[in-house]
Design a protein that fits this description.
alpha/beta, 16 strands, elongated, binds beta-D-galactopyranose
Length: 385
């Protein structure tokens, strides 16, 4: 009866990065409203996800989870109904351990009853964390359990595993039935965090793919150091430049990460909105074949400057070029290295995903001068000369 979920990386919004514990029904409803008004839904964002801190500290007398009476006075179902009435989908959060990271009840030994509760409430997505896992319990088995419970709860619920890349998760998570899996610790709203996550995940592309995606954590685009959650989010001063947010988004897109927005979308700047709704970048992330990119590094600056090349369905290639260094740098891509020798009599027509126009047809190589922390993103077409 289940529909296969998450063929391509899921897209949506999650409350954690900006709001932490400070969530309520009004926030979720107004965020859903804004998804429609702002064009986020039209751009492909679909899931609205409530993270940790939504429940009472105790289960009810039947062992069921109960929504926090102050934050969600009408319970969860009306919130789900509202989100569905907007044509959007609704996500929630629980944990494989005895408690969530913030100390609320976890689903350990309650997997099947909780999956049933979520299904009754109309939940479409479950993020499943890893705090307070009993030491004697096998984490791999706990994800298999919730995977089985969700697959048999009577509703299509996307399973978003969140064990931060622990226990070599990439090597077994697909078998659990999960649709996406966090592969790193929590992102922080600063450039170093973006860079560290990318460095740790380049080379792990082969583990993601259709129906089970490598989740590099929620997007920080548009946070600009704001949020009730800065204490949890990190010790460095928060915030990136718009250039850094642009590069962060391009990397998550071309590396096939789910695109879960983490800023307060109701207050986002026009720059953040432009980054998050760039249809050409999103199309690269949502390509139906979901092939991961490979990396070619600049020979004289390999640590900091590199290109990512991702085959797209229909014969085009996404090409991203990234400059992590603190000064303007060149990335020169030799077409020979991506399978296009000069003797083929062919070149690449490059469509720029930011100006939304073709910048020309190039043969043998393309060299870009890239500003510090900036990127270029192309959709390349192989053309006969
Ligand atoms: C962390 C998780 C975060 C957030 C938080 C809630 O373990 O990585 O994304 O869900 O728990 O307490």
């Amino acid at each position: 009866m289940n529909t296969p979920l998450a063929h391509t990386p899921p897209m949506g919004w999650n409350s954690w990065n900006t709001f932490g514990w400070n969530i309520n029904e009004e926030l979720i409803r107004t965020t859903a409203d804004f998804f429609i008004e702002s064009g986020l839904k039209d751009a492909g964002y679909e899931y609205i996800v409530i993270d940790d801190c939504w429940s009472e500290k105790q289960r009810d007398e039947n062992g069921r989870l109960v929504a926090d009476k102050n934050k969600f006075p009408n319970g969860i179902k009306p919130v789900a109904d509202y989100i569905h009435s907007k044509g959007l989908k609704f996500g929630m959060y629980s944990c494989a351990g005895t408690h969530t990271c913030a100390g609320y009840p976890g689903s350990f030994e309650h997997e099947f009853v909780d999956a049933e509760t979520f299904a009754e409430w109309g939940v479409d997505y479950l993020k499943y964390d890893y705090c307070y896992k009993p030491k004697s319990a096998d984490g791999e088995n706990l994800y298999k359990r919730m995977g089985m419970a969700l697959r048999n709860c009577g509703r299509d619920i996307l399973f978003s595993a969140c064990n931060w890349g622990a226990d070599n998760v990439h090597s077994w998570i697909r078998e659990s039935g999960a649709n996406m899996f966090r592969s790193t610790g929590d992102i922080q709203d600063n450039w170093f965090s973006v860079k560290n996550i990318v460095d740790s995940q380049l080379g792990k592309q082969a583990y993601g793919g259709v129906y089970c995606h490598n989740d590099m954590d929620m997007l920080i685009v548009g946070m600009h150091g704001n949020g009730d959650n800065t204490e949890v989010l990190g010790s460095l001063p928060g915030g990136c430049t718009d250039t850094e947010y642009k590069t962060h988004f391009a990397l998550w897109a071309i590396m096939n990460s789910p695109l879960m927005i983490g800023c307060d979308v109701r207050k986002m700047s026009s720059e953040a909105k432009e980054i998050l709704t760039n249809r050409d970048i999103i199309a690269i992330n949502q390509d139906i074949e979901v092939r991961g990119p490979y990396c070619i590094r600049q020979w004289n600056n390999p640590e900091n400057v590199f290109a990512l090349i991702k085959p797209l369905s229909g014969g085009d290639y996404a090409i991203g070029m990234f400059n992590f260094s603190d000064k303007k740098s060149e990335m020169s891509l030799q077409f020979f290295d991506i399978g296009l020798p000069a003797a083929s009599g062919r070149g690449l027509e490059l469509y720029d995903c930011y100006s939304h126009s073709v910048i020309g047809t190039f043969t043998e190589r393309y060299a870009a001068q890239i500003e510090s922390h900036d990127c270029v993103m192309f959709r390349a077409k192989v053309v006969k000369l």
